Known about the structure:
Blueprint: H1 16-20, H2 35-40, E1 49-50, H3 62-73, E2 79-83, H4 90-100, E3 105-109, H5 116-120, E4 121-125, E5 133-137, H6 139-146, E6 149-153, H7 160-165, H8 167-170, E7 175-176, E8 183-184, E9 191-196, H9 215-218, H10 231-241, H11 247-261, H12 273-285, H13 291-299, H14 305-324
Parallel strand pairs: 2-9, 3-6, 6-9
Antiparallel strand pairs: 1-3, 4-5, 7-8
Amino acid sequence: xxxxxxxxxxxxxxxxxxxxxxxxxxxxxxxxxxxxxxxxxxxxxxxxxxxxxxxxxxxxxxxxxxxxxxxxxxxxxxxxxxxxxxxxxxxxxxxxxxxxxxxxxxxxxxxxxxxxxxxxxxxxxxxxxxxxxxxxxxxxxxxxxxxxxxxxxxxxxxxxxxxxxxxxxxxxxxxxxxxxxxxxxxxxxxxxxxxxxxxxxxxxxxxxxxxxxxxxxxxxxxxxxxxxxxxxxxxxxxxxxxxxxxxxxxxxxxxxxxxxxxxxxxxxxxxxxxxxxxxxxxxxxxxxxxxxxxxxxxxxxxxxxxxxxxxxxxxxxxxxxxxxx
Length: 325
């Protein structure tokens, strides 16, 4: 039986195929080799770590299942860089992978305010010490010691000098805590999943507060292509996230989103799945609401009037096509 976690009870290893249902088109995912040893040490002992809860509404495409198998096997790499447009599900994929394989996670929300030393250790107030202070492990060291999965969310938020400080860790070599001199050897189940919208820096004007990833840092990751779901799977995912949404309207919404994403002439920004959910839930709960209004409410307010007009035209064109069929 699998161990209990602070977030949810993880499935037994033999139940992993059932979790994926009839979409389990590849070999079942395997949990860590020693889940009892790995999981039990997190029960109140290591702050910041948890096993994510399984989301039964999460929709797996065949491509995502294959990618999940590659990550968990750790044969290709222990470091994975998921690069793709905003709102395409990179971080949620990492959470659901860990949820279904009983893996605790340590999450770093990357930003330019993060200093390298803080990732390895930090000082906190403590009433039980003479100095009134104590040094504790930072998220990188906690994950490396215990075999948790370290998720570097929006890794392009890390300044170049912080990226360099992680090189030894990404190479699987022992790391040194500079403040104490202690050497920490990463656990054999330790894995890093980083997410980013753009690693080149070419689109930094779209993603404020980000840096280009240097080539040495990127070379330490396997970087599979990560993008939006295919149309059929995205429709299924939208319906699962917006209960009561008419499947025909769901299809129209997804096709509008695809049209926006591929609209070179209008130069519109991506229509993310997050925004699809906002529009879908609005239409599912407010039956009298117009599709165009729901789309504009979810997508605009952040755009120019010209962009809003272009979106409106795409919605009208898609609805006209749907009625003609």
